[in-house]
Specification:
The protein has about 160 residues and is of the alpha+beta class. The protein is built from five helices and three strands, in the order αβββαααα. α4 crosses α5. About 5% of the residues have low confidence. Keywords: Coiled coil, Signal.
């Protein structure tokens, strides 16, 4: 008799949900993102996760009625997109710094080097070399900016999903 009661409790327990949402707190401690059930710092960011009833969500296995909880996946994708955007922004800054350094080297051109390049004057040689350098770095910066725009569009699409 006790086994029957325990069995019935175990079978019906998953159908009851005690909480609708779960709140997790995100803190950055010594540069490392940390997640906790309680606020772990004064600047803790509260993240609310949807709690789904597994029994009802997966009781109907037909392809037309799939129920999924993508809030965590969307959050993680958004965080990855933000990291990628920062990486591309850093690359743009590095490209600009490299361009400035190489431009300074070009500005110190000698007449001998200008003659070897086939230019009529130092100013002409500097202008030619600077133009070629600018085109190559503009292409690299443009590609990085396009990647940032694409990532921003992906992030916007994730935020518009229900």
């Amino acid at each position: 008799m006790i086994r029957v009661i325990l069995l019935s409790i175990c079978l019906t327990a998953p159908t009851f949900s005690l909480a609708e949402n779960i709140t997790v707190y995100k803190c950055v401690i010594k540069g490392v993102p940390t997640f906790s059930q309680l606020p772990c710092a004064l600047d803790a960011q509260a993240i609310t996760l949807k709690n789904i009833n597994v029994t009802t969500a997966y009781s109907n296995t037909t392809a037309s009625s799939k129920i999924t909880d993508t809030s965590v996946d969307d959050y993680l994708k958004t965080q990855q997109i933000n990291r990628d955007i920062k990486r591309y922004q850093l690359a743009i800054k590095q490209y600009q710094q490299q361009y400035t350094e190489k431009k300074q080297q070009i500005d110190y051109m000698t007449q001998d080097k200008a003659n070897r390049l086939g230019a009529s004057s130092i100013a002409n040689a500097i202008a030619t070399k600077t133009s070629a350098l600018k085109q190559s770095y503009d292409a690299l910066i443009g590609q990085a900016q396009q990647q940032i725009e694409a990532l921003n569009q992906q992030k916007e699409q994730l935020s518009q999903q229900p």
